[in-house]
Every structure is written in structure tokens, then in C-alpha cells.
Design brief:
eight-stranded mixed β-sheet, globular, alpha+beta, Glutaredoxin, 32% helix, single chain, FAD/NAD(P)-binding domain
């Protein structure tokens, strides 16, 4: 048999997670093969909400403007108990200053996939559509996988250094690794309908309605009075294939206390909700990401966004190892950083979901009697509103306990946190732009921040020369004075008038110092990241 083709990374599954991983690797110059048994990007709407943190990643890839133009911005969320609105959360006001995208963007999964696919093609990458991962075996040096093209052609082998399963909740990669997918399935059967809604409630905002019988969530979609409606399938409804929304409309309206009318339903489906998480995200030469690693209830619109963050976390680590710039131990931090987040998300969404749908008397009393009293008092506090926004938007997720996060000044943002949002004025630029758009993806960046510009550019040149001697091409150094956006970053970091900040390729802070400490940074690179010049890994 001929020697199989050798590739650094094989990605199974071209949904949002796989496409994001491929986009990141393409920009990092890493060769990969992305395969999917589908004939093209998903056509169904499926996941709907794009959170601010995902849009920040999109901005770094140059696709945020297109996503925002195609989607619908939701700046407010309402909770109705019975016929009374008990709380409105002003998402846009709360998130302003925290992110360039202080809202929930409603953009169907199909459109996200199309945009990611376009970004991948623009970077020179492609998807092998109609190509299925049939089987694989891993050993100490890599993975031998058998891929089956569409049609009657037999499977053929490829040899990959690393395999990443982004192949969804029914992941073949996870199953063949024999990893458990602990969790369960909610007893209720749920429905989702993309439909036109006529009612007297505030238009264009996310609305959750709780009644004695059930709940329904309304997500505004592009188009006049169009919403995605999610709720519990009424009892007695025939859940067999072929069920139409029109058959349950009367029962849905009867369950709700808010008068509502539906029309022009374009998509409807009944489904069961799972809550599961794999035991580990890395197994030897194989990784799991997105729904292959964790599935959640739809509360909070977190699932697709968490998969995108998985991909952003893993991509740069894989790239450094493939390039021989870091030891394989760096890849263990993917599980160390992402698994706890998946576990916390599973726990919080599961608790919220059970509280919303439980028919038990205590749960019903809490949501129908206690919630209208407690939530307005609690959510009226700015500090609580900020915590809620940061959690749902995923801008507040952090890796402070990671071994990649150095100790540093104890300010509002510290190593392990996402780099705070600020508008930067690059040299020769016509206007300021968000820091996530200014820092190109895929590289480490060292920001030298200072009140006043005296000597700052000379410092930046000295840092760049030092880093290039020890780590050629591994990090770009940027000088940012207070007049060009540095003041806002210094304030949000809480580090005084001068700081050096090392930013990871996924836009998280790795290391900070209140002086320009070159030996301290070099020690961090060697000891925490295990980074080395590229020729070391190739000897």
C-alpha cells in the first residue's frame, strides 16, 4: 500500500467550530485538511445568537461587519410573568464600553457558517465537502485516518500529526476514542419555530414569557415581526415526523398568558434537549471541540459561541507545536482552560433550564411568585447587571487559574482575563478602531503602554530586537501612548501610568508588568509556554 498523505492537522466537521479552527490555522500558516460528510455549509438556521465575545473574534478575522450587517441587534431582554413585564435588561446600555458589540446578534447558524467559509477561502483554505471520517487509529507519533469520499469510491488513508473532532453531538471521533459523554436528556419535548408574531409586546427585543403552564422564548429575527419561538411541546401533541406548528398553535396560545398570534411559519422542529460534557478534551493526539465535547440547554444562547471559543483557544497552541516553537505539553492547557468553562456553563444553564421548565410546585412558586419580586430588585443593581452581561456575552470568561497566566498586578484585568476593550489609534490611521481589530489574529503581541510618548518607540524597538533574537517572528511589539488609546487600556488594567502587557493570540492577557522588564518576559516565555526558536524543534 502506498504511504498515506501526511498532514499536520486533520479536522473532522465543518460546522462553526471546525470552520473557526480552520480559519485560525490558515492565518497561522498551518497546513490542515477539513472534512465534512455534508455537501456544503448548513442550510438550516439552527443556533441563532452570536455573543459579543464571538463577534470580537470575527472582528479579528475581518468578518464582524458583514455579520452585523446580516443579523439583527438585540439591545434589550424582557421577562414576563403572566401578563406583566417584571424585568427589562438593557443589554446595550450595560455592555457599552465593555465591548464594541454591546448586544446579542441574531444571526442564524447557516449564515455564520457561510461567513466563516468565505473567510476561510479568503485565507487560502478550503473544505473537503462530501468526505467522511470513517475510522482512525492513533499512536505516539500521530493519527492514521480513513476518509471516504462521496459516491462509491473506497476509503483512503491519511496520516495526521493531530486530529480534532468538531463533528457535533454524535461525534464519531469521541465515540471511537471511547470517551464518556456524561449528562442526560431532559424529559420534555421542545419545539422551535421561525414564524411571524403579532402581539402588543415591545418589538425587536428578546422576550421570555413564563406562565403557570410553561414558558416560551421569543428571539427577534431579521424581517418585520419575525421571531424564533422556543417552548415546551404541549402535552398530547403528536411528536412524530411530519408534525407542523399550525397543529399546535392553539395549544401554545392557550399555555401563554400574553395574547399572541402566529402566521407564516417557515421552519418548525420538535427536539429533545441534552446536557452533556466529555470527560477530557484531549486524548493523546486527538482533541474534541464544540458540540463534540459539550452540549447545553438553549438558555443564554451559549452553545455555538462556546465552540467558537474552543477553536480560538486550541488553534494557536496547535500552531506553535506544529511549527516546533513549543513543546507538546502546551496542548494540555487546552483541556485545562476550556473544560472548567464547559462544566460551569453546563451547571448554570442546567439549573436555569430546570427552574424554567419544572412542573414541580416549588419551582412554579419560585418563577411565578418569587421571581417577580426578587429579580427587579436584584437586576436593578449596576454591578449585578454587569456580571450578567459579562457572563452571557462571554466577555467575562477567564483563565486566571491556568499555568499560562502569570502572576501580575492585581488590577481589574489581570493575566488570564480577556484584554479589555479600548479604541486604539494606529500610526497613520484615519480613525481609531477597537483593539481586537487592530491586533491581527494568530500572533502574540506585546503592548507597551505609557502616559506620554517620550522614549516609547525606542523602547518598543529594543523589545522587538530582543524578542527576535530569542523567538524570531513569534511576537510583535506595539507602543501605545496615552494619546492614542493607551490611557483607556491602562485605566482598565488598573496598573498605573506604565505597563507592558503580553497578549495571547486568542486576545487573552498572558503576562503583565508595571515596568518594561525584558528578563521577566523572556523567563515567562521559557518557563510558562515552553517556547523556543523554530530551529530547536526541527533538529
Amino acid at each position: 500500500m502506498a504511504t498515506p498523505m501526511r498532514i499536520p492537522v486533520l479536522i473532522a466537521g465543518a460546522g462553526p467550530t471546525g470552520l473557526m479552527l480552520a480559519c485560525q490555522l490558515a492565518r497561522l500558516g498551518i497546513d490542515f485538511r477539513l472534512v465534512d460528510s455534508k455537501t456544503g455549509p448548513t442550510q438550516e438556521s439552527r443556533a441563532l445568537g452570536v455573543q459579543a465575545r464571538s463577534l470580537e473574534l470575527y472582528q479579528a478575522l475581518g468578518m464582524a461587519d458583514a455579520a452585523v450587517a446580516q443579523g439583527r441587534q438585540v439591545a434589550g431582554a424582557n421577562l414576563y410573568v403572566g401578563e406583566r413585564r417584571v424585568q427589562r435588561l438593557p443589554i446595550g446600555d450595560i455592555g457599552r464600553g465593555t465591548t464594541p458589540f454591546p448586544y446579542l446578534l441574531i444571526l442564524e447558524q447557516s449564515r455564520n457558517e457561510a461567513l466563516l467559509h468565505q473567510a476561510l477561502q479568503a485565507s487560502g483554505g478550503s473544505v473537503h465537502w462530501g468526505c467522511e471520517l470513517v475510522n482512525f487509529q492513533q499512536d505516539a507519533d500521530g493519527v492514521t485516518a480513513w476518509l471516504r469520499p462521496s459516491g462509491d469510491r473506497p476509503p483512503y488513508p491519511v496520516r495526521a500529526d493531530w486530529l480534532v473532532g468538531c463533528d457535533g453531538a454524535r461525534s464519531r471521533v469521541r465515540d471511537q476514542l471511547g470517551l464518556s459523554f456524561a449528562g442526560g436528556t431532559y424529559e420534555h419535548l421542545f419545539y422551535v419555530a421561525d414564524t411571524q408574531v403579532d402581539w402588543d409586546l415591545p418589538p425587536g427585543e428578546l422576550t421570555v414569557c413564563l406562565s403557570d403552564a410553561t414558558f416560551a422564548a421569543f428571539f427577534p429575527m431579521p424581517g418585520e415581526r419575525r421571531y424564533r419561538v422556543v417552548g415546551v411541546l404541549p402535552s398530547g401533541a403528536d411528536s412524530e415526523q411530519g408534525l407542523r406548528f399550525e397543529a399546535i398553535e392553539a395549544a401554545v396560545r392557550a399555555q401563554m398568558d400574553v395574547p399572541v398570534r402566529f402566521s407564516d411559519t417557515r421552519w418548525f422542529s420538535a427536539y429533545r434537549v441534552h446536557h452533556r460534557c466529555v470527560e477530557r478534551f484531549r486524548d493523546g493526539r486527538c482533541f474534541l471541540a464544540g458540540d463534540a465535547a459539550h452540549v447545553h440547554s438553549p438558555v443564554g444562547a451559549q452553545g455555538m459561541n462556546t465552540g467558537l471559543q474552543d477553536a480560538a483557544n486550541l488553534a494557536w497552541k496547535l500552531a506553535l507545536v506544529v511549527q516546533g516553537r513549543a513543546g507538546e505539553a502546551l496542548l494540555d492547557t487546552y483541556h485545562d482552560e476550556r473544560w472548567p468553562i464547559a462544566q460551569r456553563l453546563l451547571k448554570t444553564t442546567d439549573t436555569a433550564f430546570r427552574w424554567i421548565v419544572s412542573p414541580e410546585a416549588v419551582a412554579r412558586a419560585l418563577r411565578l411568585r418569587a421571581a417577580p419580586v426578587v429579580l427587579p430588585r436584584l437586576l436593578s443593581r449596576p454591578a449585578v447587571q454587569q456580571r450578567v452581561f459579562r457572563a452571557i456575552s462571554q466577555t467575562g470568561l477567564h483563565y486566571r487559574g491556568s499555568r499560562l497566566s502569570a502572576t501580575g498586578p492585581a488590577g481589574p484585568a489581570r493575566p488570564g482575563d480577556r484584554l479589555p476593550h479600548a479604541d486604539i489609534e494606529p500610526p497613520l490611521a484615519a480613525q481609531r478602531q477597537p483593539v481586537y481589530a487592530w491586533l491581527p489574529p494568530g500572533r502574540f503581541h506585546l503592548l507597551l503602554l505609557q502616559h506620554g510618548s517620550a522614549g516609547l518607540q525606542a523602547q518598543a524597538s529594543a523589545w522587538q530586537a530582543e524578542l527576535d533574537r530569542h523567538w524570531p517572528g513569534g511576537c510583535s511589539v506595539q507602543a501605545v501612548s496615552a494619546d492614542h488609546g493607551g490611557a483607556a487600556l491602562l485605566e482598565r488594567l488598573g496598573v498605573g501610568t506604565r505597563a507592558a502587557v503580553l497578549v495571547r493570540p486568542d486576545q487573552y492577557i498572558a503576562w503583565t508588568a508595571t515596568d518594561f522588564d525584558r528578563p521577566g518576559l523572556l523567563a515567562y516565555l521559557r518557563e510558562r509556554l515552553g517556547l523556543r526558536p523554530p530551529d530547536v524543534g526541527n533538529q
